[in-house]
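Reading a protein record of the kind used here takes only a little practice. The record below shows the convention in full.

——
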Amino acid sequence: MARMDTTRYRLDGHDVLAHRLTVPLDHAAPGGETIEIFAREIVRDGGAEKPHLVWFQGGPGGRGDRPARISGWIDRALRDYRVVLLDQRGTGLSTPADALTITARGDAAAQAAYLSHFRADAIVADAEALRRHLTGDRPWSALGQSYGGFVITTYLSTAPDGLREAFITGGLPGLTTPAEQVYRLTYAKTARRNAQYFARYPDDQATLREVTRHLGDTEELLPTGERLSARRLRQVGTRLGAGLGFDALHYLFEDPFVTVAGARRLSRGFLADACALLSYAGRELYAVLHETIYAQGAATHWAAHRVRGEFSTMAEDADPAWHATPYHLTGEHIYPWQLREDPALAPLAAAADLLATKEDFPALYDPRVLAENTVPVAAAVYTDDMFVPVELSQETARAVQNLRPWITNEYHHDGIRVDGEHILDRLITLARS
């Protein structure tokens, strides 16, 4: 059995147990290379006998929550559970997988081979190893947001005996949907959110066009040192998927220019704010692995890049001066050129290209097993979700036995961050009713 070390400290009236567990890099080859997994377990005073709930955060490539105080969904969860915040492999205090550590493994082929072990199936195997240590092999509960819901769907497919119950927010994936179809749906929803945004802030459409034209004529450098391209600027549209994203983008575009020695330039403040939205420094895994989460027995071949041209308002070659067509921001889409323009991603660009052409990624979901599922599941499905299309979520909800969906337009994709206590409470009630 894998070795686990634990230390503890106190946080806001709670015991916190910091667990470090050694697991195989490839669970199919347990005698080979190992990595370390970190998890932070929070136990409310008097709650030592409560069952465990493991949290799978969004991503891919996102680390577990770092609460400074106990509030939101964690506060609600601690009424019923000991909460386990897992740093998914490669993130946080788990063995890091970033541009520095991955490139040290050798050429692009070696890097891609290593990264192929960082998908949901491996995360579930890690969680199972951790569960056996923490619970004495009793099943535990799971909560997943966004990509975390994808992980739970894999969990239900491959290791359902490890789950007592499951809660999913904004993260019911299509079970067999090709990447191209996923992106057709997300582009359409991104266009709709653009239309809503520019209806609320109509002057921002003119500002976006003006800034885009300026970037075509003038070299403007981000604080990370590279030139800001017009196509990369449009990626700030990922904020459109958040409940408060409209206002955040409006503040970005409300005053982008300054005059310097008679010349119009983008302000340092605008460039810094744009860089905070655009740079993947410290989030390399997200960009490199993003399309692999849709790869099941077929290569993606940079599906988001190929499908983009089907949407004229977001086409890469759309002319900002052509006012007959709306000029839109893009959303949660990763492009091959992006990995070369972002200095944080450039060292991994060749490996990402290899992952995009990998034909033999195994299936992550088993429709047959899910059709006979006995684990109680409750899922919040957001009708206006820009990142996880409601059409696919509803289809999956019908396909998974014993799953009860809560379909609502009260929240956007980040609902768990906005009103987590209420959302989790409702899901717990739904699963147990």
